[in-house]
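Predicting holo structure, flavin-adenine dinucleotide bound.
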Amino acid sequence: MNILVLVKQVPDTSDVKFDERGVMIREGVQSILNVFDQFALEEALRLRQKYGGEVSVMTLAPEQAKTAVQKCLALGADKAYHISDKAFGGSDTLATSYALSLAIRKAGNFDLIMAGNQATDGDTGHIGPQVAEWLGIPHVSYVEQVLSIENGRATVKSILEDGYRIVDVELPALFACLPPTNFEYTNPSMSGIIKAKSKPYTWWKADDIDGDKSKFGLNGSPTRVLKMYPPPKRSRGTVFTGDYHDAVKKIIEALMEKKVIE
Amino acid sequence: MLDFTFTEEQEMIRESVREFAQKKIAPIALEMEKTRQIPEDIIKGMADLGLIAPTVSPEYGGQGFDAVTAGIIAEELARADVTGSIPVFYLVQASWGHIFDKYGTEEAKREVLPNVTKGKWFLGIATTESDAGSDVAGTRTTIRKEGDHYVVNGEKMYISGVREAYTRGGGHITIAKQNPELGTRGMTLFYLPLQSKGIIPTYVDDLGREGISTGGFTIDNVVIPKHYIIGEENRGFYIVHEGYEYARGLISVICAGAGLQSLERGKKYLKERKAFGQPLAKFEALQFRLAEHYTKLSFLRLGAYWALWTYDQEAKGKATRFEVSKAIAMAKMFASEWSNAAIDEVMQWQGAFGYTRECPDQAAWRAIRSFAWAEGSKEIMRVIVSRELLGKEYISYK
Ligand SMILES: Cc1cc2nc3c(=O)[nH]c(=O)nc-3n(C[C@H](O)[C@H](O)[C@H](O)COP(=O)(O)OP(=O)(O)OC[C@H]3O[C@@H](n4cnc5c(N)ncnc54)[C@H](O)[C@@H]3O)c2cc1C
Ligand SMILES: Cc1cc2nc3c(=O)[nH]c(=O)nc-3n(C[C@H](O)[C@H](O)[C@H](O)COP(=O)(O)OP(=O)(O)OC[C@H]3O[C@@H](n4cnc5c(N)ncnc54)[C@H](O)[C@@H]3O)c2cc1C
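Done. Tokens:
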């Protein structure tokens, strides 16, 4: 089983602030590995343990994203591909997924490609499905668990708004992964961090991947960002304080008053 | 060439430890005041990550970390555990694990160290006695050779981790007199398992760091095998100081980390709490105190890492024993005082709440206070620096 995990470094959005123009303040914001991607990686490592094989990770990003990739290696991935070139500047999701799909072809034959369901910054959820389309392979989104892999097929659990579905799919395929709410992320161990240093790390520039260069970067990006602004702030609502029993009582009274319950 | 950056690898280590410590340790730290032990799942988590005695070589279950890297872990643990218990649990084993690894026999290392790094056993240090602390030469405990083994008699007091080693397994690197007539040149260091026949533990009701015990034990004709001797016989006094220096370096980082973390809490409080119609943070009298403590502790932090770096330089043959002793003593000289002063200030900012048990800073204050004595008192740090500056002939006693 050869698995590739697509990973992205994102700003730590647990503490995001915007300036008065609505532009995100990046200063002082730490960069982290997209948590969805860490989940995808941990799922891939679990599969490796069960079925053997190798787990590679790939990112298309400026050089500084190396820390996120290095974390993947420390968590147990076997090797890394890092595609970085000014030519990719200004890429929208279409151009990003195109370049990624070319790099994936070059990197080798993978039985399985895993991605995060979405990146916590861009948050489009495009990349996984788009990469699959460029490669002409099936994909499943909202994958919470890969249940089994047998005879060139995989069974996965995919989360729906009101439940879940079990999907049986032919490999190679791409899964966009979504961690269960109570997922406990692993911290890289000290020995993992030491070993990461000596694992294969491949750098590619735009010239290293074959494809239509006019589809790279800003030129290959049909999307135009006209304006960015944070969503309007919602009012805080009513907060009920006090001791647990009192608060519950007050909430029930308020709901009854509004005729939500009787 | 002056470069204050950590390596990429060290930054990753810091991040991983910080995440673990803030997620798992910080929320339960104050509970240790009552439970008086480090939760088992935290010990296991630390062992799984490789945080227990990471200074031990990989072949015995450690990570082979140098002193600076060991310091990074110490700082993050100190920033998370306000009771200081886990930092003590960590620093003692990191320092003395390093000494065991460097001077222990192959057989003893195979037997003991993997159990330590896995978090099963505790490894401590026992030099202090009721009548001998700073003056290690005043040690009364004796060790004598009998055929192919040794017999130890005496007592040790004010020792960290007695309950841990007595109940979990493990023991203490212990010093005793083998040839009393030779003074400091007649002392031997050895590993003493606390579950040995002839050991009776006692416990001290400490002022702080409740998650780890302090106590003592009597040693009544305890037999230890030859391979438990650490380093050469009669060289104990010298080896033990190397270990103390390691520990003092880590303690200095811990003091800086705990103090700076307390200032973080204080800063938040100053901004939130209002008096006389404005946030406390607007009062310059308080701003200046924040600025002063922050500056002192930042210098302490730098000094502590520099001292640990000096220790690592010695291992590379680029610094002498004396340079290391001096650097480490300079780092520890003000460590507990400055940290305690900063934490005390943060307690003050919090008004009456600062004097309650709920206030995390009171626990930090009590923990840090111990480092004015533990692993070498602040006065002894002055003795060492003076000795290095003036020369041995000016030591006022022999
Ligand atoms: C018009 C436009 C211009 C842009 N210009 C820039 C720019 O100049 N610089 C810039 O940095 N960004 C730019 N972006 C953002 C960039 O295109 C997106 O961040 C990127 O395409 C991923 O989209 P997303 O963040 O929504 O990821 P999603 O589609 O939500 O991510 C889903 C999953 O896909 C994988 N994935 C996503 N991105 C990558 C990647 N780069 N490498 C490997 N795997 C990945 C991860 O597994 C991730 O969890 C631009 C976007 C637009 C629309
Ligand atoms: C919480 C805690 C944990 C400890 N854990 C351990 C442990 O795990 N293992 C261990 O072996 N020990 C441990 N100790 C003991 C510690 O190392 C000693 O307390 C320390 O070395 C001082 O010795 P003492 O207490 O006997 O004080 P003394 O040596 O009796 O000194 C009393 C006072 O006189 C000062 N003084 C002594 N000599 C001089 C001098 N020449 N000039 C100026 N002032 C001087 C000292 O600084 C001190 O303030 C621990 C102590 C504490 C508080």
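The CA atoms of residues 22 and 72 of chain A lie 32 Å apart.
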